[in-house]
Automatic annotation (TrEMBL):
Belongs to the binding-protein-dependent transport system permease family. Signal peptide: none annotated. Keywords: Cell membrane, Membrane, Transmembrane, Transmembrane helix, Transport. InterPro entries: MetI-like, MetI-like_sf. It comes from Leucobacter chromiireducens subsp. solipictus. It is a multi-pass membrane protein. This is ABC transporter permease. PROSITE patterns: ABC_TM1 (PS50928). Residues 91-275 form the ABC transmembrane type-1 domain. Its main location: membrane. It is found in: Cell membrane. The chain crosses the membrane at residues 39-57, 93-117, 129-151, 157-179, 209-233, 253-278.
Length: 283
């Protein structure tokens, strides 16, 4: 090309160049600004630190092996129980009692709370007795319940329901009664029936209180089931843990505790998922 020839260059369209996608420092800072991300990082750090201290204390002799089993022996026993299927038999029995107790507690607490909404006099008369029952130590009354209802499934379900009942009742009452009087007057002014007030106003308001309470109640129902299985049972996680303690098998005890802890977390996560799915029905 000669020196006098004008070189043709592409004419700019005025559009800015498109940035190539990437993950930069600003993205990392934005990710770390999330409370959920920080919570996950802290949880992982705590889990890793706990496992390290567990392994160190067991291998170094800092804690007696009669009290703390080494992680490798614990997970070896856990793998054997999973392979043989014995863990599933006990876990299924505990899960069944826990779910039955939780279901009965939810139904009973909601039914009583609805009755209390319509009768304040009855609520003031009965509520102190329910409070007294809640203060009873469940470990102490477990033998009495078993002696009264036998050694089958019924006493274990009753104990699990008793553990889960009171938190649901308290939160249901707060949700059903903590209503602005102006809202109630508005419903009455348009001719709404008492059932419509409950369905359109009180129940949506109560959901915000009920769902968090059910998360705690589910874990309490599991604790009640374990207590009942300690006292009298032929299967279940509580029965298996008690048998392992009596035989002096520390690694088996730790393996069962790990399974029980994971099961408790799963129950809590399921209730948290239900809380998330029903958030649109909240007030």
């Amino acid at each position: 090309m000669s020196a006098n020839t004008t070189e043709l260059l592409p004419v700019g369209t005025g559009e800015r160049p498109v940035a190539t996608p990437g993950f930069g420092l600003s993205d990392i800072r934005r990710l770390l600004a999330s409370t959920t991300t920080r919570a996950v990082i802290i949880a992982i750090a705590l889990l890793a630190g706990t496992f390290w201290f567990w392994n160190y204390s067991a291998k170094s002799g800092l804690i007696s092996p009669l009290l703390v089993a080494p992680p490798d022996a614990t997970f070896q026993v856990l793998g054997q129980m999973i392979e043989s299927g014995t863990i599933w038999v006990n876990l299924r029995a505990t899960a069944l009692i826990t779910l039955l107790g939780l279901g009965i507690a939810i139904v009973a607490a909601l039914a009583i709370s609805f009755v209390f909404v319509f009768s304040e006099s009855l609520r003031k008369a009965v509520y102190p007795f329910l409070l007294i029952i809640q203060t009873f130590p469940k470990v102490a009354i477990a033998p009495l319940i078993i002696a009264g209802f036998g050694y089958g499934t019924t006493p274990k379900v009753i104990l699990a329901a008793l553990m889960a009942f009171f938190p649901i009742l308290v939160n249901a009452l707060v949700g059903l009664t903590n209503i602005n009087q102006d809202q109630i007057n508005l419903f009455k002014s348009i001719g709404a029936s008492p059932w419509q007030v409950i369905r359109k106003l009180r129940i949506p308001n109560a959901i915000s209180y009920l769902l968090p309470a059910m998360q705690s109640a589910a874990v309490l129902a599991l604790i009640g089931t374990i207590v009942a299985e300690f006292v009298s049972a032929r299967e279940g996680m509580g029965f298996a843990i008690q048998a392992a303690v009596q035989t002096g098998s520390v690694s088996t005890t730790f393996a069962l505790l790990i399974v029980l802890g994971c099961f408790g977390v799963i129950i809590w996560l399921v209730m948290a998922g239900l809380n998330f799915l029903l958030r649109r029905y909240r007030r």
